């Protein structure tokens, strides 16, 4: 899961950079996905230490959830945009939607990983 966290963070860093340069308005808020990405990469790297894995993976999951909650509004805006509607900042809406999709996959994988780890711990304690 640590490597998946690093990959997810890297995808968000790239998304932020692409959003910044594609928007043409040079708005620093386009780098918000990159900020979450940098934090996820850091958590993934720090979680490679077995003594810190649980702590930093939980921090990464929390960051993923916060990022998801902040970007989820981009999905209906992008759907509206794709169906011919007007959106105030189309590039921002698409960027938020992509960030939300990436983070929903990450959070789901993190929760699944936590459940599997708990079951493995319980199975190990029972024997």
Offer a few descriptive terms:
mainly alpha, about 130 residues, 5 helices
Structural summary, described in words:
The protein has helices at 2-23, 32-46, 53-71, 74-82, 90-126. The mean pLDDT is 92. The longest helix has 37 residues, at 90-126. Helix content is 80%, strand content 0%. It starts with a helix and ends with a helix. It has one domain (2-126). The protein is built from five helices and no strands. Helix 2 runs antiparallel to helix 3, helix 3 (53-71) runs antiparallel to helix 5 and helix 4 packs across helix 5 (90-126). It is mostly helical and 127 residues long.
Q: What's the topology here?
A:
Elements: H1 2-23, H2 32-46, H3 53-71, H4 74-82, H5 90-126
Could you give a short description of this structure?
The protein has helices at residues 2-23, 32-46, 53-71, 74-82, 90-126.
Separation, N- and C-terminal Cα atoms: 25 Å
Q: Determine the number of helices (DSSP H or I, runs of at least 4 residues).
A: 5
Total DSSP E strands? 0
Total discrete domains: 1
Largest sheet: none
Structural class: mainly alpha
What's the shape?
elongated
Report Rg.
17 Å
- The level of helicity is over 70%
Q: Could you state the order of secondary-structure elements as H and E?
A: HHHHH
Strand content bin: under 5%
């Amino acid at each position: 899961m640590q490597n998946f966290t690093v990959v997810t963070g890297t995808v968000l860093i790239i998304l932020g950079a692409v959003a910044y340069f594609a928007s043409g308005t040079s708005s620093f808020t386009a780098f918000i996905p990159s900020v979450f990405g940098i934090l996820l990469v850091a958590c993934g790297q720090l979680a490679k230490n077995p003594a810190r894995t649980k702590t930093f993976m939980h921090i990464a999951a929390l960051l993923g959830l916060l990022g998801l909650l902040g970007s989820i509004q981009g999905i209906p805006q992008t759907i509206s945009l794709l169906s011919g509607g007007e959106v105030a900042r189309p590039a921002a809406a698409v960027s938020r939607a992509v960030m939300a999709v990436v983070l929903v996959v990450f959070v789901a994988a993190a929760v699944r990983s936590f459940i599997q780890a708990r079951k493995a711990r319980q199975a190990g304690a029972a024997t």
